[in-house]
Design brief:
There is one protein chain. The N terminus is likely disordered. The protein is mainly α. The chain starts with 14 loop residues before the first helix and ends in a 12-residue tail after the last helix. The longest helix has 29 residues. Helix 2 runs antiparallel to helix 5.
């Protein structure tokens, strides 16, 4: 699909964003896409942990809420940007699902796996340093693991590359 004229018929070179599709995709582009994903995931996950803890839910219920909200916030960042670009809500949902599902899933799997495997982290409270260390450490490792996944996907015109047609 050629997106070179999507801005009111004017040429727009995507190589400035992502080095083009294929092997030329830059690490900087992959890192930006991953940071975008991480921001939404972090907001949703922390909010879920806070809500679950405040309601005195168990670990499983809190983690399910946190992961669900991570997906909601992760998708919402893309959704709002694409709707703002003039795409219908239905179309924007399709773009967000195509752009972010794999990235969010990998991020959540890694992040929550680290939290689950960190001794005592699942039982730590929001006021405990261990809770925040495990959470932030999980986010850091998830970023490192998800960035190459995003680079690979963008290089094949998938993942965050789908969003480029709408900005």
């Amino acid at each position: 699909m050629d997106h070179s004229t999507h801005h009111s018929g004017t040429a727009h070179d995507h190589t400035a964003h992502d080095g083009g599709h294929g092997q030329g995709t830059t690490w900087a582009t992959a890192m930006k896409a991953t940071l975008h994903c991480l921001t939404g995931c972090a907001i949703g996950e922390i909010l879920g942990m806070v809500i679950g803890t405040a309601l005195m839910w168990g670990n499983v219920q809190t983690m399910v809420l946190a992961i669900s909200l991570a997906f909601v916030f992760g998708y919402s960042f893309t959704l709002f940007a694409v709707v703002r670009a003039g795409v219908s809500l239905k179309g924007a949902i399709k773009v967000a699902l195509a752009a972010d599902t794999v990235s969010i899933a990998v991020m959540e799997l890694v992040d929550n796996g680290i939290i689950a495997l960190t001794p005592g982290a699942m039982d730590a409270h929001l006021s405990d340093g261990l809770f925040w260390a495990a959470l932030l450490g999980g986010f850091a490792v998830a970023f490192v693991i998800t960035t190459p996944v995003n680079k690979w996907m963008i290089g094949r015109g998938k993942g965050h590359a789908v969003v480029h047609a709408y900005h």
